[in-house]
Design brief:
By secondary structure, this protein is mostly beta strands. It has no helices and 15 strands. The strands form 5 sheets. A 3-stranded antiparallel β-sheet has the order 1-2-3, with no helix packed on it. The protein has a 3-stranded antiparallel β-sheet with strand order 4-5-6, with no helix packed on it. It has a 3-stranded antiparallel β-sheet with strand order 7-8-9, with no helix packed on it.
């Protein structure tokens, strides 16, 4: 199912897949959560006052909960998701744009648009792009298998690998018809996909291309990719 043609109080800004691959959640900027298929609704922030808009969500490994993250670094835990800390109320150099969790759900990372990475719980810090010159802002973070590394992806398609995350190529320096808005990695970490707001999908490493929405008229821009 989807929310296409339905009136929304705020735009959709993120999604997460159920562990069994039979469902997914969508989250809106106002914190509203929408569950489809095997994904179970565990609560939302819809209708509540937020200090900053929600920018993403991730599901717990057991699929019985999820976290929402806001642009000011606030983290909100639902269902089996455990709160391990946040940046809410902290002065940030740039807005938070993404979140990734450890494989066992006992920690998570937040990433800011300037490439700063913040680790909570059992998540280990492996480096960041904070303080470095970027050609385009960071738009997401993806954890490497085992939780011992992560990739950062920028709006121009630049990819930055830390820890055990393996660099398999990027779009940095290439002309793009639309900015990159999200990234998803293969379960074994041998490759990844980048998605652009016009629906284009780019595969790297062992990741296969299964098609895209490039050249298709879209009612609204794509805002991410899930795997």
């Amino acid at each position: 199912g989807s929310l296409g043609d339905r009136h929304l109080n705020a735009p959709i800004v993120g999604s997460a897949a159920a562990p069994d691959g039979q469902g997914y959640w969508l989250v809106a900027a106002d914190g509203g959560v929408f569950a489809f298929g095997s994904a179970t609704f565990h609560g939302s922030l819809g209708g509540r006052h937020l200090n900053a808009p929600i920018v993403g969500m991730i599901a717990t490994p057991d699929g019985a909960g999820y976290w929402l993250v806001a642009a000011d670094g606030g983290v909100f835990a639902f269902g089996s998701a455990t709160f391990h800390g946040s940046l809410g109320g902290t002065q940030l150099n740039a807005a938070i744009v993404g979140m990734a969790s450890t494989p066992d759900g006992t920690g998570y990372w937040l990433v800011a648009a300037d490439g700063g990475v913040f680790a909570f719980g059992t998540a280990t810090y492996h480096g960041s792009m904070g303080g470095k010159s970027l050609d385009a802002p960071i738009v997401g973070i993806v954890a490497a298998p085992g939780g011992t590394g992560y990739w950062l992806v920028a709006a121009d398609g630049g990819v930055f690998a830390f820890g055990t995350a393996t660099f398999a190529g990027s779009l940095g320096g290439r002309y793009l018809s639309a900015p990159i808005v999200g990234m998803a990695a293969m379960p074994d970490g041998a490759g990844y996909w980048l998605a652009a707001s016009d629906g284009s999908v780019y595969a790297f490493g062992g990741a296969r291309s299964y098609g895209s929405m490039s050249g298709t008229r879209l009612n609204a821009p794509v805002d991410g990719v899930i795997a």
